[in-house]
Amino acid sequence: MSEFDENLRLSSRLVQELYHKYAFNMYDDMPYGYAIMKVIEADDDNGEAFFIYANSEFLSMTDNEDIDIKGKSYREVMGGLSISVYRNLCKAAYHKEKSIFFENINSGGSWLDVMTFPSIQNGYCAMALFDSFVFDSNFIENEDLAEADRVIVKIAKMIHSSEDDFDINVHRALRFLGDCLKCEKTYILEFFHGQPLIRYEWQKDENFDEEEYAPEVIMERIQYIEPWIRENHIFIVENIDNVADKNEPVYKVMRTKGIRSMIMVPYYVDNSIVGYLIIDNYKEKNICTIKYLVEITAITFFSEIHSRRLVEKLTFMGIHDQLTNVNNRNAFNLRVCELEGIEDCVGIAYADVNGLKMINDELGHDAGDARIIKIASMLSRVFLRRDVFRIGGDEFVVIVPGIGKDEFDEKIAHLKKIARQLENEEKIAANSGVNMFFSLGYVWADNCFEINDLLKKADELMYEEKQKYYKVVGHRR
């Protein structure tokens, strides 16, 4: 039996003992759901929680009125334990942090406002449930736009929640939207460098056929629908049989993929479609209210996603060299600050391009750029791209933390071998053994206590190699 399984067994037994030891009936008259749990922490977000106590309101709100849940696991009672709920339980039980979030805490149940907060004893926490958002499953049929607005606000709050990371927030919001529309699948298709990408999705049945929802398969559907979308800005099929005569290709592709009803909402940037919010096999009937809900929801999703992508792009540009795509001086400075004073081995290499000024003068700057790109590629072939930095016009630095001396020496030897092979191909090799592509200086140390001194030493060794190059070529350009 594994250590984790043993902890589960002991926790279940302990919960039973605690229940009989303490008088929890004082919480029975609370007007909101209240439960006390023992939480088992695991590194892979696959831990467990056990119920010590739950009041009658908690049992009612989670559809467990007829079940004695004390001593039972959360997964057993609720039909599953989502990552977001588990992480918030752990934060309360082990880090003494209170969390407030909106969640569907039991499989197929209601969406509720949830609060998790710590207890005095480590490893235990309480969960409170508040039904501040009472979702009427018939609101769309009743054309209640005010209720639809409440759904939109809830989705916006989910996406912007600071309790979890952005990807988890979007997944939860898609799940909530799917529950509201009683659909089988909600997902977002984006175009990344012109290629379709599905990064966010939720489906009611976890055993769905992934191949049926591959981006290229979805694009087959979109190619027939897109002309209609550009005219109407939103594509809604209430019943597949209604399009059989109007658009036979759409009918065929939907029928073969098991699509009975569908909503497809595009998102535009500069008059170009950059993605779609797609909802498959929904059951609600009022088209006007559905259209209102999903159009605004799509804007909410995509405006935040687009903003995130812009931030990611700007962040990438801020730490990467635009010519070579390796790290730039900003990233170099960050790496040095991260490693300074760390008790870990490190390998450092300085590489300075040889003859760059002569190449620029005689062959043009395009040829000079090509030489710089080639050397960046050589360094990235031997070392990981994340460890390669272009810190000046013709100057590169490699910083590899955690590498052993023998491995580092092997990589340096491999780098020199690649350089020699390319020199022979370009017929610029020198018989003196001097590297004609770049001058190289390198050091290895068993700690990073004096990393700036190590960088200086590698730079000095590179300069010594540069002097040898000058003697061979007879000039200092």
Your description of this structure?
- With 477 residues, this protein is of the alpha+beta class.
- The protein has 3 domains: 3-130, PAS domain (Beta-Lactamase, 2-Layer Sandwich); 145-314, GAF domain (Beta-Lactamase); 329-473, Reverse transcriptase/Diguanylate cyclase domain (Alpha-Beta Plaits, 2-Layer Sandwich), CATH 3.30.70.270.
- 45% of the residues lie in helices and 20% in strands.
- It contains 14 helices and 14 strands.
- It has helices at 3-21, 56-61, 74-78, 83-95, 145-159, 166-181, 215-232, 248-256, 287-319, 329-339, 356-363, 365-382, 405-426, 451-473; strands at residues 33-40, 48-54, 99-103, 112-118, 124-130, 185-192, 195-203, 235-237, 262-269, 272-280, 346-353, 388-390, 395-401, 438-445.
- A 5-stranded antiparallel beta sheet has the order 2-1-5-4-3, with helices on both faces. A 5-stranded antiparallel beta sheet has the order 7-6-10-9-8, sandwiched between helices.
- Mean pLDDT is 82; it is low at 8-12 and 19-23.
Compile the SSE list and pairings:
Layout: H1 3-21, E1 33-40, E2 48-54, H2 56-61, H3 74-78, H4 83-95, E3 99-103, E4 112-118, E5 124-130, H5 145-159, H6 166-181, E6 185-192, E7 195-203, H7 215-232, E8 235-237, H8 248-256, E9 262-269, E10 272-280, H9 287-319, H10 329-339, E11 346-353, H11 356-363, H12 365-382, E12 388-390, E13 395-401, H13 405-426, E14 438-445, H14 451-473
Antiparallel strand pairs: 1-2, 1-5, 3-4, 4-5, 6-7, 6-10, 8-9, 9-10, 11-13, 11-14, 12-13
Helix pairs in contact: 5-6, 5-9, 7-8, 11-12, 12-13
